[in-house]
Amino acid sequence: MSDVSISALNPVKPRLWVETLWLLDSLTATQPLREIPLRRGLNLIVSPPGTGSSGHGVGKTAFCQLLRFVLDDPLWSDGSTLRDELLHSRELKEGAAAARVHVGGETWTVLKPWLHQKHYRASCTADWRQLAVNDAENEFAAYQAALRRHLVEVLPVQELPGSEQPIEWHQILAWCSRDQNARYQNYYQWRADGAGFSWPAKSPAALIQIVLGLLPDGTALRELDGTAKTLEKHKTDLQALREEPGRLLKHVRRQLARRLNVSVKTPFRQDGLLEQPNLIGLAKQRHDTYQQELLTIDAERQELTAQRQTWMEKRAPLKAGIDLLTNEIKQMEALAAGDIQEVERLQKEASSLQHQLPTRCDAGNRLLRDCSHVMERIEQTQIDRKQRITQHQRAKETLESELLPLRRRLAELEAEAAPMNEQLTAIDQRADALTTRHAQSLSADQLLSDAIEDYELYEDIATGKSSSPEIATLERQLESIQRRHGQLQIQLVKERDAVTGRHHVISTAMQAVAKSLPSFHWGVLSDDNKHRNRPFQMGPMHSTTFKVLEILAGDIACLIDSTSPESFHPGFLLHDSPREAEMSESMLWALLGHVASGESDAFQYIVTTSTEPAEAFKPFERLRLSSDSEDGLLLRRRVGEEQRPLT
């Protein structure tokens, strides 16, 4: 089983939390400007009003941005001048933020200078000092992969529905660490300049549903849609296959009627005892006719074969003589022309005089090799090359005189063989005609037999007596898909029931948050499309001030629910100055008190506030900032060209 699967089945809670944040004025520092310890559960970063101070401008928002910076948020400084102020500060431009971060049970130390991205570093074993001086293996890419593996890849859906945009870690972090100046627009507005969604109107809501376990991976729904389309196609194909035999039956019937030259209304087979024309009977008669014709043709072909053999035997001696004379004449003509190569080629032919020496001559009934006349003619064509050159002119005249009687004899033999050749040509023409007739009759008979066979096959299928292999296969496939379709419907109902159950659990968490607040009696996670931008609601109070309270309460309900095995929430939440919208102190502490009352270490909630915490909340205070002196500021000095206070 993969690490991702193990993480999904046995998630460490919280999936993400920050143990310590260090702020450095340079990479060579031996001591940090600030070391801010944090814990699981509630964490307060406070800056109460002081002497002539409202508690603002000391670095609370900068703390939130730098925390996002070490959590690998590429948009950490968007919408503010913090990064520019740090880079323009003589004392701090070489500085960095470092943190010990717990991701899915893994502990990472991260160090990120704000000047050079190439110096971002991380390690599972080294501390921030070793990373600062580059005295440890840099595993920053592995740190980024761990964030994605434990916080994104565990999600049941990896792409946002509709836009198909891959889900990014920084988009989840944007929800868990709202910009202060974007918090009050609607529940899905997390960053003043957006969170990088290609479909910002719908993607944030879809992302939250995925993270909360309210949106299954969609595999069952997509497969159900696919099986529904396949079912419809198979039913259409099956209907077409079942109708096909009837259509083919009519087609074959028309073919039979045309081949038999009868009306298409002629019945296929005899119906009843009365004798009447029918296609089967007519086809049988036509088949008998074809068979008789084939027998007649075979008999004629055998007779022609015998005649041809007789004429071939009669012509054989004449043909042999013609071939011999033709070769001899050609040899003598080539010799007279001085074409020695042609002479040698002709001598190698089977019809040459040289190849006939082992045979007997017709006149003297003796072997040709024993005939002095024959041997003289052969020797005449076999004189050596030197003699051919010196005697060429004389030999040519002699050869010309000897060719005349040979040519006359050849003409006599050809005239004698001509009637025999004519007889053989006529026999061959008759044989070709019989072969054509045989093929036509055989083809017509086969086509008629095939048509009868096809008609009976399609008739059986059309009347249900038998089933075609294609129909049987498709019926089995249809039955299998129908079973799968039913299983998917059951699975989808279970998934919807699970979503309903998750919706109820989160609504219960929201109800508990609402009831912990003064004057509120109910809270709910709404699925009403009319309140699309207000998914978390509380009542009965309806002041616009409490719209912000609903947003914060919704975040907290999701954070508390993150302890549920069905939730994929990181278990990390960062709220920057939640009293900025005229929320009363009693409402703020009631809200934070609800988080603290659970005493849970399965999530981390970090809140910055300029309100002095009550005594009961002192144990949750992790950092106290003040504008009374520079030492009370987050970076222990003012930054910026005009030395303005940090936001």
Distance between the termini: 47 Å
Runs in which pLDDT lies below 50 for 5 or more consecutive residues are 1-9, 641-647
Count of individual beta strands = 11
General form: elongated
Oligomer: single chain
What's the Cα radius of gyration?
53 Å
Count of helical regions? 16
Average predicted confidence as pLDDT: 83
Query: Which class best fits the helix and strand makeup?
Result: alpha/beta
Major β-sheet strand ordering:
2-1-4-5-6
Note the run of SSEs as H and E. HEEEHHEEEHHHHHHHHHHHEEHEHEE
Helix content: 40-55%
Question: Strand count, sense and closure of the main sheet?
Answer: 5 strands, antiparallel
Strand content: 5-15%
Structural features, described:
With 647 residues, this protein is an alpha/beta fold. 51% of the residues lie in helices and 9% in strands. The chain has helices at residues 3-9, 60-70, 82-87, 128-132, 140-151, 169-176, 203-211, 219-260, 279-336, 340-347, 372-380, 385-390, 392-462, 469-515, 545-561, 585-597; strands spanning 16-24, 34-37, 41-46, 96-103, 106-113, 121-123, 522-525, 536-539, 572-576, 604-609, 621-624. The chain has a 5-stranded antiparallel β-sheet. A 4-stranded parallel β-sheet has the order 9-10-3-11, with helices on both faces. Helix 9 (279-336) packs across helix 10 (340-347) and helix 14 packs across helix 15 (545-561). The longest helix is centred in the middle third of the chain and has 71 residues, at 392-462. It starts with a helix and ends in a 23-residue tail after the last strand. The model is unreliable at 1-9 and 641-647 (pLDDT under 50).
